[in-house]
Design brief:
The complex is a heterodimer of chains A (247) and B (124).
Chain A lengths: L3 E8 L9 E8 L6 H12 L18 E4 L2 E4 L13 E4 L6 E3 L2 E2 L2 H6 L24 H8 L9 H5 L1 H5 L6 H11 L7 H8 L13 H5 L6 H21 L6
Parallel strand pairs in A: 1-5
Antiparallel strand pairs in A: 1-2, 3-4, 3-5, 6-7
Helix pairs in contact in A: 6-9
Chain B lengths: L14 H31 L2 H11 L2 H28 L3 E2 L2 E2 L2 H24 L1
Antiparallel strand pairs in B: 1-2
Helix pairs in contact in B: 1-2, 1-3, 3-4
The chains are: A alpha+beta (247), B mainly alpha (124).
C-alpha cells in the first residue's frame, strides 16, 4: 500500500475566488484514517486556512457531510483506503450555497424544519404526576427508523428535485415529520398536514430515491415521503366522501 | 456565497438520475398507449372497414416501431413502479409487517390476473 494519497480539495475563498478551485494535498494513507482525518492533517500540518465543519467524528452529529468523489458522504465515516490509490476529490455538499471551502450554508433547512413541527404535539398535556406517555415496543418500531435522522443534509445534497426547486421542503424534514406522525404519543398529524401536503411538500417529490441511497443512518426518507403521499391521498378521499367527519 | 449551477444535462451525471428521468418519460408512453387503445375501441365501434383501416395503419413500420418503444417504456414503468410499491405501502397483518417481497409479489399476481381476464375477454 502506498504511504500517501492525494486529496483534491475544493477551495472557495470569498472575495478571492469567483468559483471553487481544486487544490491538491498529499496526506498519509493510514488504514484507520477517514477523509476527515485527512482534512484535519491538512489543517494541522499543511494549510491552516482550509475550512470545514466537524464535531463528533463518529457519525452522530451530522456536521461533516461533504461530496467525496461525487457522492454525498459523512467524511468521518468514509475511509481513505476505500479510495486508494486516489486521488480523492472532496467538495462541499451540493445544492447548498458555499460559504467558504467545504462549509455550506444550511440556513434554508433550518428555516424549513420547524414548519413541520418535529416535536410531540399533544391536544392536552397530562399532568406530570401521571408519569411518562407509555409506548409498546411495537409502537416504537413504527417510527424508530425515522428517528435516526442526524440532520446531516446528505439527502438534500443527493436530491435533484431540491437542486431544481429550492422551495421543496426536502427529504429530512418530511421524514422527521413522519417520525412524529407515526409516534403513538403524538396528536399533531392534522397540524402538519397543510405543510406536508402543500405543493412544496410531498407532491414535489418524484421518488428519485437518491436521498435514501445517500442516508448514512438508513432512515429511508424517500419511503417516508411515499408513505405520506398514500396517507394524504387517503385523507383527501375521505374528506370528499365524508366532509363532516374529523380527519 | 457561491451557488453551484445546475446544468442542463444534470440527469446524465448519475445512473440513478438517468433511470429516474426515463421512468418519468415513460408516462408519455403510458398516455400514448391509452390513446392508442381508445382509437382501437373507436375503430371497432365504427364497423369492420374502420377496424381494418386501424389494423393496416397499426402494421406500418413506423407505428410498429413506436409501439415497440412504448412497450419497453411501459415495462420499465411497471417494473420500477412495482419495485417501489413496498416503500409506500406498509401493511400490517396481526401486528407484524408484511415483508416487502410479498407486496411486490402481490402486485405481479394482480397484474397477471388482470392480464388473464383481459386476454379471456378479447380471445373468447
Amino acid at each position: 500500500m502506498a504511504d500517501e494519497i492525494t486529496l483534491e480539495v475544493a477551495r472557495f475563498r470569498p472575495g478571492e475566488d469567483t468559483e471553487p478551485v481544486l487544490q491538491s494535498y498529499q496526506v498519509p494513507l493510514r488504514e484507520q484514517w477517514a477523509v476527515l482525518d485527512g482534512l484535519s492533517y491538512i489543517k494541522d500540518h499543511l494549510d491552516g486556512t482550509l475550512s470545514f465543519r466537524w464535531s463528533c467524528r463518529m457519525g452522530i452529529c451530522g456536521s461533516c457531510g461533504m461530496t467525496v468523489n461525487g457522492d454525498p458522504q459523512l467524511s468521518c465515516a468514509t475511509f481513505l483506503t476505500d479510495y486508494a490509490p486516489g486521488p480523492i476529490r472532496i467538495e462541499p455538499l451540493h445544492n447548498f450555497p458555499v460559504i467558504r471551502d467545504l462549509v455550506v450554508d444550511i440556513g434554508d433547512f433550518m428555516d424549513k424544519l420547524p414548519t413541520v413541527k418535529p416535536w410531540l404535539v399533544r391536544d392536552v398535556h397530562s399532568p406530570l404526576e401521571e408519569g411518562e406517555y407509555l409506548q409498546t415496543p411495537e409502537q416504537l418500531e413504527d417510527y424508530q427508523q425515522f428517528s435516526m435522522c442526524i440532520n446531516c443534509m446528505l439527502c438534500y445534497s443527493a436530491c435533484p428535485v431540491y437542486a431544481l426547486d429550492q422551495d421543496f421542503i426536502g427529504p429530512a424534514a418530511i421524514a422527521l415529520a413522519q417520525r412524529y406522525n407515526l409516534d403513538s404519543r403524538d396528536e399533531g398529524a392534522d397540524e402538519r398536514l397543510a405543510v406536508l401536503s402543500s405543493p412544496e411538500g410531498i407532491w414535489s417529490c418524484t421518488f428519485v430515491g437518491e436521498c435514501s441511497a445517500a442516508c448514512p443512518k438508513g432512515v429511508d426518507p424517500a419511503g417516508a415521503i411515499q408513505r405520506y403521499k398514500l396517507t394524504a391521498a387517503t385523507q383527501a378521499i375521505k374528506g370528499l366522501l365524508m366532509p363532516r367527519s374529523r380527519r | 456565497m457561491y451557488q453551484r449551477p445546475v446544468h442542463l444535462f444534470w440527469w446524465i451525471e448519475r445512473r440513478s438520475y438517468l433511470l429516474f428521468v426515463l421512468r418519468e418519460l415513460s408516462s408519455v408512453f403510458v398516455a400514448w398507449t391509452v390513446v392508442y387503445l381508445l382509437l382501437l375501441v373507436n375503430a371497432v365501434s365504427d364497423g369492420p372497414a374502420s377496424y381494418q383501416r386501424f389494423l393496416d395503419r397499426g402494421g406500418e413500420w413506423w407505428m410498429v416501431a413506436i409501439n415497440v418503444i412504448a412497450m419497453l417504456f411501459l415495462l420499465l414503468h411497471v417494473v420500477t413502479w412495482f419495485g417501489l410499491a413496498p416503500r409506500a405501502m406498509v401493511i400490517k397483518v396481526r401486528g407484524s409487517r408484511v415483508p416487502p417481497r410479498q407486496i411486490v409479489a402481490a402486485h405481479y399476481l394482480a397484474w397477471l390476473v388482470l392480464s388473464a381476464i383481459v386476454a379471456w375477454l378479447v380471445l373468447r
